Amino acid sequence: MPELPEVETVKNEIMPHLLGKKITRMEALWAKTLCPPETEFNKLVSGLQVTGLSRRGKYIIISLSGGLFISVHLKMSGGLTAVKAETEQFPRFTRAVFHLENGEQVYFTDIRKFGRINLLTSLDTILEKLGPEPLEGDFTPEVLGKRLSGRKGPIKAVLLDQKVLAGVGNMYADEALFKACLNPLRPADSLSKAEVTKLHLAIQSVLHKAIQNKGASVSTYHRPDGSKGGAQLEFNVAHRRGEVCPECGAPINRQLIRQRACYYCPHCQS
DNA sequence: CCCGGAACCTGAAGGC
DNA sequence: TGCCTTCAGGTTCCGG
């Protein structure tokens, strides 16, 4: 599932196919994917040039000439695929198409239709619901400590709150808590200073390593060239139902926390 | 602020 | 083989 490392990888690898190109037309094959709807979207973007690509949390931000932005959220099963030249048949599950100059295209595919491509005049609506970027220099252990203070819910659930920290999802929250040897049910504000520091380091190292491995291909995630990421091969607990802890050999627990599957080692994370 | 639950969707996997 | 149920989990919204 796309979390920060997967979104970062998609952004980086789709960049050469979009940067500097003119958008001739946006096409919606599943109407709800585009907001505003296709006709209105096209009135505003056709002929504009892509001037930049960036990522904030799990959003890909496409900057356009004229001061407009397109945000892409992959949600559960979305992906972008680069295509050199126009083809007559779209791949299965294509929900939207970026038509570019010279007949090039970028497909937005999404089995479950949760993903969204929004046209924005300002990034405020996105930025105001996101906490700090975990890999930026200003994300320090002190900042993490402040974000967790006063939060009495389980640390696992609090880490998934995008307003606390942007970009961490279910898989990497499980991996970071394992690396920091923290029980996912611990109240977020009960962590000692040393534990917060350990968690801060664990979050950064888990995300860095996953980006190096081009994301985790569990279920439907794929890179823009169609290949898979390798980060799932290094998971210690996430999605490892019925397996044992690589550190101590204890069976990995799967427990619902706030309706979300949580994988952890009951021995190492006691 | 905290929490639970539903909604949005489809395909894979497991049970019978 | 085939029907039915469950599971997957990012985000928003609604109600208590």
Question: Using only CA atoms, what is the Rg?
Answer: 20 Å
At the first level of CATH, what is the class of the largest domain?
Alpha Beta
pLDDT < 50 stretches: none
Give me the number of helical elements: 7
Task: Give the mean pLDDT.
Answer: 92
Which architecture of the largest domain would the CATH scheme give at its second level?
Alpha-Beta Barrel
- List how many beta strands DSSP finds: 11
Structural class: alpha+beta
Number of domains: 2
Helix and strand sequence: HEEHEEEEEEEHHHHHEE
Output the strand order for the largest sheet: 2-9-5-4-3
Cα separation of the termini: 27 Å
Could you describe the 3D structure shown?
GO terms for molecular function: 8-oxo-7,8-dihydroguanine DNA N-glycosylase activity; class I DNA-(apurinic or apyrimidinic site) endonuclease activity; damaged DNA binding; zinc ion binding. This is Formamidopyrimidine-DNA glycosylase. InterPro entries: DNA_glyclase_Znf_dom_DNA_BS, FPG_cat, FPG_Glyclase, FPG_N, H2TH_FPG, Ribosomal_uS13-like_H2TH, Znf_DNA_glyclase/AP_lyase. With 270 residues, the chain is an alpha+beta fold. The protein contains seven helices and eleven strands. A hairpin with a 4-residue loop joins β4 and β5. It starts with a helix and ends in a 6-residue tail after the last strand. The relative contact order is 0.15.
